[in-house]
Every structure is written in C-alpha cells, then in structure tokens.
Amino acid sequence: MSGLARASSQGSLDRPDDEVVPYSDDETDDELQSEDDLDRKAGWSVRANDREYCKRPEFQKKVFLCIKKSKYSGNGIKTYKYNFFTFLPLNLYEQFKRAANLYFLCLLILQIIPQISTLPWYTTLVPLVLVLGITAIKDLVDDLIALVTVFSRSKARHRMDKEINNRKCDVLLNGRFVETRWLNLQVGDVVRIKKNDFIPADILLLSSSNPNSLCYVETAELDGETNLKFKMGQKVTDERLQEEDQLARFNGLIMCEEPNNRLDKFVGTMIWDAQSYSLDLDNMLLRGCKIRNTDFCHGLVIFAGNDTKIMRNGGKTRFKRTLIDKLMNYMVYTIFALLVLLCAGLAIGHTYWYESVGSKAWYLYDGLNYSSSYRGFLSFWGYIIILNTMVPISLYVSVEVIRLGQSKFINWDLQMYYSEKDTPAKARTTTLNEQLGQIQYIFSDKTGTLTQNIMAFKKCSISGRTYGESTSADGVVLDRGKPVDFSWNKYADNKFQFEDHYLISCIRSKKDPQILEFFKLLSLCHTVMVENKEGELVYQAASPDEGALVTAARNFGFVLLARTQDEISILENEREESYKVLATLDFNSDRKRMSTILRFPDGRIRLYCKGADTIFANDTLRTLCLCYKDISEEDFAVWEQKHQVASCAVVNREEAQDVVYEEIEQNLLLIGATAIEDKLQDGVPETIAKLAKADIKIWVLTGDKKDDMKIHYGEDVNVQLRNRQTQRRSDPQGRNCKLKDPFFPQPGKNALIITGGWLNEILYEKKKKRRRLRLKKLRRRPNTPSPPDNSSSQPVDEWEKEKRQEDFVDMACECSAVICCRVTPKQKANVVSLVKKYKKAVTLSIGDGANDVNMIKTFVLLINGSSSLGSAADIGVGISGQEGMQAVMSSDYAFAQFCYLQRLLLVHGRWSYIRMCKFLRYFFYKNFAFTLVHFWFSFFNGFSSQTAYEDWFITLYNVCYSSLPVLLVGLLDQDVNDKLSLRFPKLYLPGQQGALFNYRNFFISLFHGIFTSLMIFFIPYGAFLQTMGQDGEAPSDYQSFAVVAASSLIITVNLQISLNTSYWTFVNCFAVLGSIALYFGIMFDIHSAGIHVIFPNTFTFTGAASNALRQPYLWLTIILTVGVCLLPVICIQFLYQTIWPSVGDKVQRNRKKYELEDDEEERKKKKPAFQRGSRSRRSAYAFSHSRGYGDLIASGRSIRQRPRARPELRESIREIPQAENI
C-alpha cells in the first residue's frame, strides 16, 4: 500500500504538470473584484415572518430624483410587451428605429411637399405600409399568440401573466395558513406548497412531508429537463419546523447573495437562535418548478417576482448577426451614397439646363420666378424621391421570410430526426441559417457530444491487479468469455454486463479485504439518491459516472439501500449497515475529486476520496482513483470547526471551502482505480472526416494516427511561445512588424494537446484564486514591472500579452488537431473568443451540458442596472443528450446526435448560403435595372425629375411584379441534391471563402443592372424615333414608351431569375409566368377607361396599354430588348461553365450519373419489405405518419422523370471521381 502522490498547490503556481490534475481558474486578474464589491453582493437579507423588515430605510433604492422604493420586488410579473393601447405606438417606434424604414418615412414626408413631389404619395406609402404591416403582424402574433418563452406554456402572454399572478397558494399570516394569490406574496413570507403545485417564488425549503424534508421537483419549465430533481431542507428546520405554530414562531435571518440569473448556484447563511447554517442550491425551490411525489412542503420566500432566477434569465439577448447581414448593411449604405451622388449630379445638370435652355423657352414657363440654383436644389430632392427604389424597402422583410422558411426546412428534415428519443432537429433562431454555410472552426465538447455519455463499468485496479478481462473463476484468462451470472444478488441490475468471474469469486469468498474495501468505498462515497419504487431500487445520480459506479457496487454485492441527510445505509456481505455522514466534500472543476467523511458503526472516522486520473487513458477509459484515510476524533473536531466557518461564509465560500478541503485530503492511502467506458456516438468518425474534407477545422479530435503526428504538449508550447516572445523583444522593429515564421517545420503534421493549467500559464492567467484573494485582502499591489528582460517570461504590458495570445492561436492553427482537456467552461469560451479575435473566422460551438453554455450562447444580462456581455461562438449547437437541456436551451440549433452536424452544415447551411447569395445578387440587380431607367430618361427631359414609368407601376414593381420568383429561389433553390452535397464536401468551400456574395458580386450586379437599364431605355427610345403604326398613328408618345419599357423590364427580370434557377419545380414555373401574367392583367385594368372615370386624377394612363400593345412593331421591340438583355448573360454563363467550371459545375455536369449510382447503392442496401422476427414501430414524430413532400424538398430531386440507366453504362458508372479530385 503506497501513499497517493499529490502535487502541492504551491508548486502548481509556477510550473504546471500535464500529468497532474491542473488547476483551472474561472477568473482572471482583470475580473477580480475588491472585498468591498463582494460585500455588497452579500447584501440581501430576509427575516422570516416579518414583512416590515424589507421596508426598512437601508433597503430603499432611488427610483427617480428623491423618490425611493424597496429593493425587494413584489411577486407580480409582466412578460408581455404590448397591450391594446401601447401596441401601435411602441411597435412603430421599434420599427422606425431601423434606418431603412425611417428613410422611407422621410421620403413619404418629402412627397407631401408640392414643390419637390415628383411621385404621388401612394407610391411610397403602399410598400411602406405593407412592410410595416407584415412586421407588426409578426410581432403581434409573437406577443399575443406565441408560447411564453419563460414558462413554455401554450397561452398568450397576457392571459398567462394574469393566470400566473392569480394562482393560489397558502401563506402563513397571523399564525395560520390562509389562501392568497401569488400576486400578494412578499419576501419573508412562509408558504405551504402542495403536490403538483407550481412554486410561486424562489423559496428556501424548510420542511416537507417526506422523511428528512426531501422534496422532489420537476424542472422542465426551468431548464427543459424532464427527470425529477430532489431538494432537501436543513436538518435543524426539518426537526423543528413541521407544525403550523412552530413555523409561526420561526424568525430566522437569511443572509445571501443578491438576485442573479445563475440557475446552478446559490450561496447563503441562515442565522437562527445564535447558530449559523450553510445554505446552497440544494436547499432552494426555484420559481417555475413543480412539486412532485411530495404531499406538501413549507418554505420561506427569498426572491419574489422579477428578482427570481427564472425572470432574471429573461434579460436582453444580444442577437447574433451573420457576415451577410453586416455586408448587406454596408452595401445599403453604399447604395445610399451612390443615390446621393446621382441626385446631386442630376440636380447640377438641371441647373445648367435651365440656365441655358429652360429659362429661354417661353413654352416651359411655369409662372414661378425661381432661380436656376434654387430649381436645381428642388430637383435634387425630386430625384431623391424618384430614385428611392435603389434602396430596397422590401429587402429586409424578404430576407426574414426566406430565413423563416429555411428554418422550417431544418425542423422538418426527417433525416435529422432521432427516432429513439423522438427528437427532431430544431432551429431555435431564424437569423443565422446562411452562416451555417460559412463555418471555418468547430469547437466541440467531448463527453456527451462526441460520446454517448452512457457510462459502463469496464475495469478496475485493486492492490496492483487489474480486473475486467474475460477470466474464469480461477483467474485463467479466456479467449471468449461469457457474462457473469448475478442471480445470487437479488438487487442486481440486469443491464449490467461483466465478464471477470475471478473478481466475483474473490468478493463472495471475502478472502481479500482490499477488494471489499474498494467496493464499500464506491457504495458510500457519492451523492446518489435512492428511491424504492414498488420494491425496486431506483438511483438518481448527479452524473452518469457516479451512477455507473454505484450500480457496479450494487451488482458486486454492496447495495445502496437508503440515504438521509446524515446517514447512508448499504447492504454489504448480505448484512445491512448504516454509516453516519459527517461531511461531504463536493466535487468541483478545480479539485477534480470528491470526498465523504463517515463514522463507522464501530465509532471509527474514515475519509473516502475519489478523483480523476489517467491510468487507463490508453484504453480510452474514464478513470478515477480511490483512496482513504482514518481520522482521529481530535483532528476531526479541529477540522470540523474550520469547515463550519467556511461553509457559512457568504463571501468567497467556495474558495474558503477549497482551502479547508485541501487540509483534510492529505496523506491518503490508495486502494485502486475504476475505469468507465463512454463509447463514441454512431457516425462520429465519418462526420469528422467529412467535415475535415470541407476544410472545417475541429478543435477536439483528429482522424490521423498518432504515429503519423508529432504531438506537442503544454510545456513544448510554452517554450515555443517564450522563444517567439524573446525574438520579438530582441528585434528593434518587433512592435512594428509581425513575425511570420511558422512554429513548426511541417505544418499539418502536428497535434497540440494542452490542459487547463497550461492554458492559464501560456495566456498569463495562472495565479491561484486564494493567492489573489489574499493579495486583495492585504491591499497589496504587485511591484511596478522592471525594464524588459529578454529572459523573463512575464509580459511587460498589455500589448505583449495580446501578442502572446495571438502567437498561441497561430501555433494552434498550424496543427491538424487541437485538444484542450480539463478546461473550465470559461476557458472554453476564451479559446473560442481568441480564434474569433485573431483569425476573424466564423466559428461554431457544439456541446450537450451546462458547462458548454458559455461557448454556445452570446447574451447581455442586466443586473442592477449594469450589463455584462457573454462571449460565444458565431453559432451555438446543443446536443439533447444525457446532461439535461441547458445547452439546448442556450443554443441556436439543436438535435440529438453529433452526426447530424454534417447535414446541418454541408446540406442546409450550404443551401441557405447559396440561396441567400442568389437572392441578394438578383434583388440588387432588379432594383438597379428598374431605377436607373429614370436616370437615362433625365438626359432627354431636361433633368426635370419626370418619371419614365407610370406611377402605379412604380408602386407595384417590388410588391407584385418581381417579388415572388426571387423569393422562391431564396427558399427552394439547390445546385445539387443533399446526397451529392454530402458526397462532395469540397462544395462547401465557396461559402467559407465568401465567394458568392461580396463587394465584387455587388458591383457585378450594379453593372449588370446598368447594362439592363441602358437596353430597357435606349432600344425602345430608338424604336420610337420616327415611327408610324399600321393604322397610320404614331405610337411614339410618352405613355406608350412607358408601357413598352415597363413590359420589357418585367419580362427581362423574370426571365433573368429563370436563368439563375438551378432547381425547377412547378411552383417556380408558376411564379415566373404568374408574375408576368399578373403584370399584364393589372396594367390593362389600371389603364382602362372604367377606373379612370372613378379616379380621374389617380389613373391617367387611360387606354395606353391597349393602344400600344396592339402594335406588332412594339411587340418586336419588346422581344428585341429582352433578347439583347439576356443574350450576354447566357453567353457568359456558358463560357464560365465550359472553360472555368467550379466544383459545383463539375458535380452538376455529372449529376445524373451520381444519382443513378446512389440509387443503385440504395437498392443493394434495401432490406426486404418483410423480415421474420422483425418489429415495426411507428414514429411519434408529427410529420412521419404519412409521406408528404418533405423528402422531395430535402433531397433536391427534380420533378422531371429520370431516364433509366442502360446496362452497358454500369461499369463506367462505378468510376467515381472523388471531391478532392474534381
């Protein structure tokens, strides 16, 4: 028996060791607060049964000027945003905060001014009202009909708030319980909650109907988890606060942290009868939870209403924005700048024209004696109105509609539906879909994300011998073993599998006391709760690891039977024993271990401890070392006093407890080690390999063999970075130039493995918490840094610290694999932030547990008037696994298996990016082509701000005539189907490079629009010169010209989107032809005599359409204009696809061949319709009962019939060009 080696805490301050469990501080020097700040955090105090206590002057806060009110909130809540009276003004205020809407409102005001109005007011009002109306309806539906996010109940917010505030509960008033509404509860009230009731506030559990004041709660409304959690009252309150009169006399004082949003933490102290008692989250019942399996419980209201944790989590969220969003905004600003320049140029032109021509032409005299300069000024505003359609009013609404549709396609994708848990994929945001097609870095958690997080006890090492291989009862190793028969143990779990019969024989023979002590430790050192359901023991563990270990001990004959606050009962050697729990030393991310101090039946005091280790790491098993030590009564008495003081500390309780824990966890004797298996999820290696081919870097695992890689550990990395720092200090130009030499001679053949301790060391965040707190307490500051010393590893200023961080990111990016192990949640978020900061890369974080929330979610929390910004990846993905739903609830996208990530990115992400880019390019093009016709017309009308089209055509162009085809392209278009997208990951590269939408594409759309507008104007203009119709009438009037130009434009832009469409369906055909037909139908109606009679001043183009379009000459003009506009586009597309084909073009060219090959493989894999002994199971997924069009949309297959494969071609079909060779 050897002592368990343990690194001293002092040594770890200077030189972390990757082989020893490192410390991983959650805080850095920059985030430390003074003791005064921490004291203020502990300023929340509550006196039981004393409402007046909260109204004291010291608890008042200033609201406005000299008006004060209590800082303690009432229990009433309001989650709705609008009511009947405030909806219209508040919604309009929100919408006009958008620059585009405000811009068009200003235009509408300009159009009311007669001197500068060049278009009727309705040309701007109709599109603006449509845009505002659609957005307002969406907001109204969200506020009045949608689910209440905080409580996830299917009722309107107004009704929900009213119902919640009027719920009833029992409150102790004047010595007896009376029924009252939630709205009337106050901090300090003692309440009684019954079975299946919701908890009305954040309440300290005092007692319950269950033994030891155990209370079961359902937290589904709080964190989405459906399994029951247990809470437990203090032993003293359980014993003394059961009856009504006892509760009425209770006058305890609760000192705790101020209200905050942390659902996983509560620190407080109860002072009662001159005794202090430590309080933590296990003693709290949080609002939003429901009481289960408990007849009733009593509690004390600590936080009420908006101070509760669930309401604090309803703070402001910082919405993530995509790269395309940012680029689109810059392009709108560019368009506005171009608009101002064009209008200024035309205004100057009008000034000179009027000076030289207009003022001298008597027939142009308008009776206004304005100067030419003033007329030019009025002309500028007139052209601002005419050319306003360059800034697209419907752009943002159209983008939101497309994103909503793309999100629905993700939700409806049956290939991302996990039938075992009835879990579909869920797009929890509608603003990031196209960003999924641009991911460059993925940061992944391991346990539960890449692995199943279903733990199985596989091996153990006891007294130097390893157990777990297939052996006989005599210890002979077998080539093929069989599972152990546990029928001798009536409490055995039938799912438990083990093949080492020798270990079982040792346990049953009781010949090795160390083996018995080993499994006794497993059955006693844990926080598992046990419940007896109909004679069957059900364990509830805080983690799958603990559950697996206690289950293993149960099968080996050491059965956890019952547990109370201060006692554990187990069955050992077929004899029931009870052990008194003196203290539980909880696990945390710094200590990486937990301990339990027990009093044995014979009076001995023993400490059992289990902590993380790497003994079975080569077998990819999760390992814990088990050890113990006996403690004398005297030593325990001294230590217990220190533990009591640390446990009751309100400020820095965790740090104080760590010091006390470290003191007792010394000189332990090692018994052995456990090894637990956590298998990879299905499809993880294939997914990682496919994403790697798409040039997406994953920072967790590598697909390369270890022998082919040179692995660099924390110490190597630190040396490399220190050398780079020294080199920079030695270079006189070090601060002015970036060192570009690679860190490794062979980039791509390296792997980096770094622990949390080394990460802090490398990034200069290595001081231990207690050392920093001691410095703060003594008010000591570090000495002023001396002049730079090239041999010193410490930074001399902030610039050098940032350069060190940048060097680390550069080094990591040279590696094929980066693994950061044993890091805290905050360190995960910091690594993501560093890559975002220094690589300007699009990042995605994926995880399954609460410890992954920091790197998944970006949020702004408002606490006491101050805000704090959380750091996260551009996109967060949550896995709905075994560790609850907190990651899912904080994510942008959620699904059940890691392997679905490849489909999310390579299919939906790529499609969304391509669709959005096509939509934006075409949207800008069609608006330029439409608007710039006015510009060319200005050169022939004296720059007089006359329009080239009829007013109603201008009003309806973006709303009716050209919106639907491009909207459908943005929703449905696919270059290749989903199978080819997965088969050729290189198709993903254009999105990472931003190749399909950038300023180059924007200016191409601009010049394309300029060319189209030139043709739309000058071809009809030339055709109308000296023209005579068949009936002898000249059709070369202004109105006929406007009709021909408008008709040419509508046909051109609708056929142009047809050329850009890769995936044709009936809906696309209908949209293109329907838009053209709708244009002609509306045009003939508004040009009719009947509507002119009713509205003579509004519809002035009477008979223009019928008169113009009955001339074959003008139809030929329209056909010529459309042909000249489209022919160059067709030629350019042909040349590009023939001479400079992209990867997508090559795949499209061979698309039918690949599809035939995929069909052939599917036929080979297809199982017979009926198999003997097979079971059929109907899915519970709503969209899986009948077959609809979801597969067609997701697959990308055309509605056209596919030609059958000829037999002689099958051999050549098998030659499959891989993506990297295309």
TrEMBL record:
The active site is at D445 (4-aspartylphosphate intermediate). Residues 1-39, 723-743, 775-801, 1154-1222 are annotated as: Disordered. It is found in: Endomembrane system; Membrane. GO terms for molecular function: ATP binding; ATP hydrolysis activity; ATPase-coupled intramembrane lipid transporter activity; magnesium ion binding. Residues 1164-1178 have a biased composition (Basic residues). The chain crosses the membrane at residues 102-122, 128-152, 330-354, 374-399, 919-940, 952-972, 1002-1026, 1038-1057, 1069-1095, 1115-1136. Residues 55-125 form the P-type ATPase N-terminal domain. It is an enzyme of class 7 (translocase). It is a multi-pass membrane protein. GO terms for cellular component: plasma membrane; trans-Golgi network. Its EC number is 7.6.2.1. GO terms for biological process: Golgi organization; phospholipid translocation. Its cofactor is Mg(2+). It catalyses: ATP + H2O + phospholipidSide 1 = ADP + phosphate + phospholipidSide 2. Mg(2+) binds at D445, T447, D848, D852. Residues 888-1142 form the P-type ATPase C-terminal domain. Its main location: membrane. The keyword Lipid biosynthesis does not apply. Belongs to the cation transport ATPase (P-type) (TC 3.A.3) family. Type IV subfamily. This is Phospholipid-transporting ATPase. It comes from Danionella cerebrum.
